[in-house]
Amino acid sequence: MPVTDTLSPPATTASVTDALHRRRSVRAFTDRPVDPALLRDIFAAAQRAPSGGNLQPWQATVLTGAPWQAVQDAVAARIAMGREGYEPEYDIYPKGLTDPWESRRYGVGEALYASLGIPREDKPARLDQFRHNYRGFGAPVMLFLHCSRIMGPPQWSDMGMWLQSVMLLLVEHGLASCPQECWAMYGATVRRTLGLGDDQILFSGLAIGYADEDAAVNRWPVPRVELEDVIDWQGFGE
Fold first, then answer.
1. Minimal CA–CA distance to 64: which of 175, 134, 132, 140?
2. Which of 27, 38, 167, 207 has a beta carbon 3.0–4.6 Å from 136's, enabling a disulfide?
């Protein structure tokens, strides 16, 4: 049965521009529960996201409570194994990453730790923050986005457009999120815990909840490059 978008806008509706400016990767959530009916409506609206050939390749498993805790526990056991515990689904970053991309990645990481007051030499604190990724930063809801292994790069792009649609709709309704490709480092463990077959590949997690507005980690500025660095205008005159 086709999905019908029944989501009603909130009393004060955010424009797309406003939602884009307000959206950020939140790394501290409150324990306030999320209404599953609201999530259902948001996902129904996100089904309007485009996909090549209308394949709609995205599939998601959404967890809270005990099932969500079970994934956290399973991955924590793998983390305790060190590098031997890695089960990567894919390379999150390209091998041999060069500038300007490497500098952007390094810079945002250092800014994150600075917002938390964690110096480079404090390895235990940095490791604890790394582990906090795999607790969803305290989010009460975790979405795991996956697809059939037969899908290729165009369909992964489709999944990204669906995920962005979800994130903007969450902002519109007062919710926050953090997309987390880091879960793919332990993809096989996540899939086993979720009961997904080997025909599926894990793309990303999405932590969902209400942002802790007072947390410093949610307030530091995340830079974006200038348009001239990414847009080449042709045929528009001087």
1. 140
2. 207
